[in-house]
Amino acid sequence: MPFTAALKDCYFFTIEFGLCKQEGQLRAYGAGLLSSIGELKHALSDKASVKMFDPRTTCHQECLITTFQDVYFVSESFEEAKEKMREFAKTIQRPFSVYYNPYTQSVDLLKDTRSIENVVQDLRSDLTTVCDALGKMNKYLGI
């Protein structure tokens, strides 16, 4: 299966139809569930199958677009689902990495030494700012 198809299916079963646990109860976070009371009732009923979210198996589940889903995937928390997706994405065989740039709110490709140097320079600048702030706080507090 092409990795883009796997990501598409994982997106579908998380961002659109994802479930997670909160205080031991099933909760919906997927937009498709939250926007359809019928689908939400179905997902939380005995008619639907609920499996633990694992991107390696979730990506092989058929996405139904004209009927309610046969299967929904649940995580212990939204954070757990995010972490599992990050780990899954690391398995992509590709000649580059990606980096979320919080300043531009975009994903940058790290495909050559220049792009990596730019990220390192930004990190150095951020660390300098944090160290400066800590120094000022310590001086102010007399530490």
* Relative strand content: 15-25%
Q: Kindly state the percentage of residues in helix.
A: 40-55%
Average of the residue pLDDT scores: 93
Describe the main β-sheet briefly.
Answer: 4 strands, mixed
Distance between the termini: 57 Å
Low-confidence stretches: none
What letter string, H or E per element, gives the SSE order?
HEEHHEHEHEEH
Gyration radius (Cα, Å) is 21 Å
Structural class: alpha/beta
SS element count, helices? 6
Q: Please provide the count of β strands.
A: 6
**Strand arrangement in the largest pleated sheet:** 2-1-4-3
Shape: extended
Cofactor: Fe(2+)
Family: Belongs to the biopterin-dependent aromatic amino acid hydroxylase family.
Protein name: Biopterin-dependent aromatic amino acid hydroxylase family profile domain-containing protein
GO biological process, one term: aromatic amino acid metabolic process
Report what the structure shows:
The chain has six helices and six strands. Strand 5 (97-101) and strand 6 (106-110) form a beta hairpin. Helix content is 50%, strand content 19%. It is an alpha/beta fold and 143 residues long. The model has no long low-confidence stretch (mean pLDDT 93). The strands form two sheets. Strands 2-1-4-3 form a four-stranded mixed sheet. Strands 5-6 form a two-stranded antiparallel ribbon.
